[in-house]
Amino acid sequence: MSLTAGVPASPLDPRRRAPRSRLQPRWAPWVFLTPFLLTFVIFTAYPLVQSLRLSFEQTFGPGASEFVGTRNYAALLRDPLFYTALKNTAWYTLGSLLVQLPLALLLAMLLETPGLRGRNIFRVLLFTPALVGVVFAAMIFAVILDRKTGLLNQSLVLATSWLPQTLRWDPEFEWLPRHAIAAMVIASLWMWVGFNMVYFSAALQNVRRDLVEAATVDGAGPILRFWHVTLPAIRPVASFVVLLSLIGSLQIFELPYLLLDVAGRPDDRGLTVIMYLYRSGFDAGDLGYASAIGWVLGLLLIALSLVERFLARGEAEGGA
Amino acid sequence: MWLMVVLLCVGCAALLLPTDRPQGIMMWTFAREHQLMYEPLVERWNEELASGLAPADGSPPLQSPFHVRLLGLPALQRRMMSHFMAGTPSSDLMEVERQMAGRTFLGPLDAVGFVDLTDVLRDEGLLEKMPAASFSPWTSRGRIFGLPHDVHPVMLAYRADIFDAAKIDVSSIETWDDLERVARPLMDVDGDGKPDRYLLNMWETQRDHLELLILQAGGSFFDAEERVVIDSPENAMVLAKVVRWCRGPDAIAADAPNFSPAGNKLRADGFVLTGFVPDWMLGIWSREIPSLAGKVRVMPLPAFERGGRRTSVWGGTMLGIPKTAARTPESFRERWSIAKRLYLSKQLATDLWKTGGIITPVREHWSDPVFAEPVAFLGGQRSGLEYIALADHVPSRSSSPFNTQALERVQRALQDLSEDAQAAGNFDEEWLRERAKIHLRRAHDLIQAVVDRNVFLRDDRANATERQTAHTPEALR
Q: Which residue in chain A has the smallest CA separation from B108?
């Protein structure tokens, strides 16, 4: 006799479960996953594989393609313009990371100062440039930085008009071709500093007050409190913001394209890797070479992201 | 899931919806001025077709209705390349400007999306009817893929009111050095020794100006065999001269950009006294700067040396027939007949001149009295005849798909040279020329690497050499 005989079945008893479709246990997850898998395969995986194939070919539409082996990659390694683009992108990335992020953190800390009035108004004001879009920002800065009639040159001319002739600002000073990276860093600073500030603000609001107060009671000044209490607390968010900025900076395209190309001033001094990819693929029509550039940049991004994650983890463990 | 199904259904329905393409032969153009000129002609032809009347000019009648559609230049370029590369829908005839055409020559010769017109042009004697230079931008590896729309000789527009007041006889100006010598005093209006206005509208960033000067000087980026020749002595000479004109202590050039209100104001104010004007530019000036009417005239470009070329070329358009629109001999003949009727007609030749100031490439129309009429905007000057006199001296241009990249590199070389000169404070032309050679060599190597990467052109060139195929429109004759 079974021990369970005569015992009412519990609600969890398999015997009491409602009868299910024979297919449900095996196929239900796939049915739910199908929309994602379809879009992933069609719009991500297939283009990735195709672009990898393309990077080993020379093509002119689907009707004319020739396998060239690693020739595109070999040419890329010998291409001085690629290194120029890489160098420019690196400078821009460094400028963005080293200027924009500390400034965003500083602004966030200022806005988190207890008792600050008009905090929300400042937040909105600082965040607004991120809403206007890169095209708008680029157009504004193209006008501001214009050689002859630009607001910046005209303002500097006016500001230095009382100085001796030799010290007066030259209205012909060419910001954009000669200082393209600095112009791009300034424009992106204007756009994204408020955006990053919001991340830091959210992180700062989660810093434990009791730890800050304990550090204050222990005699720690603002710098020590920041270094030993605030920074470790916001490290995960800071690491995330650094990673986002790194990826965004290495993929910069619209800003230099509009600042330099549309204004009719193509110049290597503002050439970034993605711009070079675009020019090679869509202006020069060499899709194989452009694919090779894309893959090299992709590998570079993966490597840098891994390094960043490794460093962030190491610091977190060290800090712990 | 349902969302995906709905989206798929909507997508399929959108694909199956009828397009608004009218029946008959469709032509795409990128120029509003061209469309305005063609519209009355096309309307009349369609009326003749509908009423069954024979064309008044004796041309073969249309076999089906003909339509012209205006597209933006980038839109036309994208549609053209999408059609050639992916088979998306296209028109039966396509008006294409020079740089767009170059893009179609990147692949193997048999992958060029336009019908090869070389044989039909030669058989019908059309190669002799137009200047050879008009065919050059549409010629790749010895084959011609378009019917030329224009010649576009370039002259120098000058402020006749100011030159006349200073009693300067422009017929005494034969070279650029002559212009500098004779007209330099006009730059200093108040007599303080500093320029108040400049002799020439030209700047380092004006790519079109740089290219036309290089072509005038006999330079080029690619030779007739499409080999890279960026580091030529002619190109170095032009770069040296431009740097001295723009940045030297005795600079004569200033920037008054074309197609911009700011530049037009500078021209109207007389801040620049001369500027490069291809035939089409005067039509634009007369609309955009009416205040210049009667104050400007044109003269041949000053040459770089005595006896040198007095003109250059700027811009250009062709009419091509996509291969997919001419799959049978009958369909090709119908489209070719319309192309010839449109581009070679006397009506269009005179309309081109009257509405756009453009000289037709068809020599037999040059004797039409319309070209000898005085032009009010130029104070009654008979500029039509002057442009026609220069039309056969227009330099040939390369159709290389790498031309735009080459021009970018040469412009960069010019900027580098300019910075060198400013840093060294040296504007001696000999020194500048030597420095220019270094920068041009770098540009040459970069473009050579790009060209070497293209396996299709290399293979086709090798085959063409084996066949001893002629590579120029002149040789094709």
A: A64
